[in-house]
Specification:
Blueprint: H1 11-19, E1 24-27, H2 37-45, H3 52-69, H4 76-88, H5 96-108, H6 116-125, E2 129-134, H7 138-148, E3 156-159, H8 170-179, E4 188-192, H9 195-203, E5 207-211, E6 227-229, H10 232-242
Parallel strand pairs: 1-2, 1-4, 2-3, 4-5, 5-6
Length: about 240
């Protein structure tokens, strides 16, 4: 488990967080909760370099964002399959669709990061409402949390498939707030490993927490998170302190 990282907040932001604890915590799913490491092994298994797994996933998100900007709300699963097919055709032996199916099977069977069960449990114990909001399907989040034995801690599983647009469009976050009956965006905290997700939630009025799993520097061109933590139990400690726990 990675060591805890102190919150990356200014004193003014820290005081703002302490004065008003969120009632709803919204978790991103892909890479924030799920460990994508096995996908690299899946790429190697079909004969591609492991590092291309990250390239594929980044291009999948890029294309989803591009379609969102044009007013389309694409299917994550369809984009994943089509983009992976284009990457594998002509580069793997046999039927490329077999290779695609193998990689996607790995993606569908991912586990959570080791810190996730304890982190979700700690946050739930504090009386916080926990939900997920993914650009992928709710069925993926459901299976992921069930395998981790953590589904009981999460109140609802939400997907942008039921919203007007993908994250980081503000309408995606508004959809989550409406579904959870939260009228003031400042009563919700978006938790994500992706700076683009943190930035989108901030612009939609939510408070934000960045889970810095890789020890990277947060990009200055995105809105800074209110909190920074690794691992998830550290986030629970930060919010627990705000609640006087």
């Amino acid at each position: 488990m990675s060591p805890a990282v102190s919150p990356a907040v200014s004193p003014a932001t820290s005081r703002a967080m302490s004065s008003r604890t969120p009632s709803l915590v919204i978790f991103d799913v892909n890479e924030t909760l799920s460990d994508m490491g096995p996908v690299r092994a899946g790429f190697a298994h079909v004969g591609l370099p492991e590092h291309e797994a990250a390239t594929w996933f980044a291009s999948l998100l890029r294309d989803g964002f591009a379609l969102t900007v044009t007013g389309v709300n694409p299917s994550f699963a369809e984009l994943a399959r089509e983009s992976l097919t284009g990457m594998l055709e002509g580069r793997v032996g046999g039927d490329p669709q077999d290779a695609v199916a193998q990689v996607l099977a790995v993606l569908d069977a991912l586990g959570v990061h080791p810190d996730v069960p304890d982190g979700l449990r700690a946050l739930h114990t504090q009386g916080l409402r926990l939900v997920t909001l993914s650009n992928g399907a709710t069925s993926v989040a459901e299976s992921l949390l069930e395998r981790a034995g953590a589904s009981a801690h999460v109140e609802r599983l939400l997907s942008v498939a039921d919203a007007p647009a993908w994250k980081p469009d503000r309408r995606a976050y508004a959809h989550a707030l409406a579904e959870c009956g939260v009228s003031d965006a400042a009563d919700a905290l978006l938790v994500a490993v992706h700076p683009w997700d943190v930035d989108g939630a901030h612009r939609a009025g939510l408070r934000t927490a960045w889970i810095n799993r890789g020890g990277a520097r947060y990009p200055s061109y995105f809105s800074a998170p209110d909190l920074e933590a690794t691992p998830l139990p550290h986030l629970a400690e930060l919010l627990g302190g705000d609640r006087g726990v």
